[in-house]
Amino acid sequence: MSKDSSPTRVAIACQGGGSHTAFTAGVLREILAHWDDDRYDLVGISGSSGGAFNALAMWYGLLTGDADDAADILEGIWSDMAVDGPSDRWLNTWVTGLSRMESAGFAIPSVSPSQLPMPELGKQRIRTVLERYIDFETIPELCQRDVPDLVVGTVNINAGVFETFTNEDVSVEAVLASAAVPNLFEAVEIHGHYHWDGLFSQNPPVSDLMDQPPGCKPEELWVIQVNPQTFEGEPTTSEVIADRRNELSGNISLNQELRFIQRVNDWVEDGKLPDDEFTKTEVHRIEMGKRFHCSTKVDRDPVFLEELQELGRERAQEFLGHRDAA
Question: Of 1, 97, 140, 205, which is most buried by a Cβ count within 10 Å?
Answer without folding.
Answer: 205
